[in-house]
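Treating backbone geometry as a discrete language has practical consequences that deserve illustration. In the encoding step, the backbone of a single protein was reduced to a row of integers, each denoting a local shape. The amino acid sequence and the backbone structure tokens for this protein are reproduced below.
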Amino acid sequence: MAVGVFDSGLGGLTVLDAIAARLPDLPLVYLGDNKHTPYGVRDAEDIFNLTCAGVERLWAEGCDLVILACNTASAAALKRMQETWLPPNKRVLGVFVPMIEALTERRWGDNSPPREVEVKHVALFATPATVASRAFQRELAFRAIGVDVEAQPCGGVVDAIEQGDEILAEALVTSHVEALMRRMPHPEAAILGCTHYPLVQDAFQKALGEQVQVYSQPKLVAESLEDYLARHPELVGSGTVSRFLTTGDPIRVSGKATQFLRYPIKFESA
């Protein structure tokens, strides 16, 4: 039984790469919904339906545990999926969890009242749909008080990354950071709330300044998954082969994925 990793496109490969590095014996099945990317400009109902379809496809591959390596899907669809749609024998986890754990220095299962945390001014960079959902602020408020979150919708960045246009992506990052810092001149921490953004993390760090701690998801998600599987070993089955599926053109997606991760990846049609 493999663990499924779902994303609207290629950004989730940053999460898969970190998981594979930390858990090299864990078989993974990645599904990129490249046919419908990007999700960040879609409405909540559309995102919910596409995410459910992707998760069901991974269930068909034997993945009883699926990670939504897509902040937009995690923000706009996960809560509704878990409350109204998910069968009791399946698990779907999002990528907000490890980020908020790290920021608030508390475990997700810690249901004690919200408390003061060290970081008071947080910049959130995400897709328009993730920002509109306010999911990050909602989950953070359950665990911390006195934290000011300024969110910046980063239109165009995912498209530029998917198209392999690094110059445009970096220019857009700089523009979005400048826009946010006009409203919050001195953030203490920055959340990269999209799994594509680690591919341009250096651009975010440069625009923000070295004094700002940048939280990027792949490593945090991998660490959290290792801990989760240690507590739920029944979700790890036999198998050693990882697979890569796409709703788009496998040849084109394979080429882009190989560019992203700098090692050969071969996608199959989903």
About this structure: The chain is about 45% helix and 20% strand. The chain has two domains: 3-95+218-269, 98-216.
